[in-house]
Amino acid sequence: MAGSGDSFRALLRAANALLQHRRYHAALAVIKGFRNGAVYGAKIRAPHALVMTFLFKSGSLREKLQSIAQATYAHSRNLAYFVFTYKGLLAAQSRLQGKKIPFHSFLAACIGGWLVFGDNNPINSQIIMYLLSRILFGLARLAVEKGYIPQPKQDPFPLVAALVWGTVLWLFEYHRETLQPSLQASMTYLYEDSEVWHDLSDFLVYNKRTDSK
Hints:
- With about 210 residues, this protein is mostly helical.
- It has three domains: about 10-120, no CATH class; about 120-150; about 155-195, no CATH class.
- The chain is about 75% helix and about 0% strand.
- Helix 2 (about 25-55) packs antiparallel against helix 3 and helix 3 (about 60-95) packs antiparallel against helix 4 (about 100-115).
């Protein structure tokens, strides 16, 4: 028993020594990136899928739990694959050219995005739209920082908020099919289901009646 304990401690020391070796840092960073992508994807998707499934999806409890597990796995897997691909390509380019340049990041991410997120499905669509909104904000701030556009004299956020809400509600009312299904479901719950009720039960307690009254 003591021998097995000593062997385990020796193995642990060897592993820790390997992790401290700068020569293998790039390869180890790729592996940890895969790990962090998987964990982060699960943390982000699981609560979102839980809420959206129980709010808007019908079916048995087993079917709902299965849907949550599938969505969580898909998000976790894709993010893990992307981080692994991105960091691997980044390290390879840096090694080939002897230094790291900004274009390496762009090219590695483009390839990773094509390979991992190129399939047009609900999970990938949500991730891309999430990123797109932040990219637009980031590019606007960068344009101001670099002097390409003048610094606004007033905070432009109220105008952005007005245009975003005006546009999304116009699309929902008149071109609903252009919006993503989960957004359609949210909008329907907020703006259409609130127009229908029969008594106090489905006015305040429930959104819709489930009986045959």
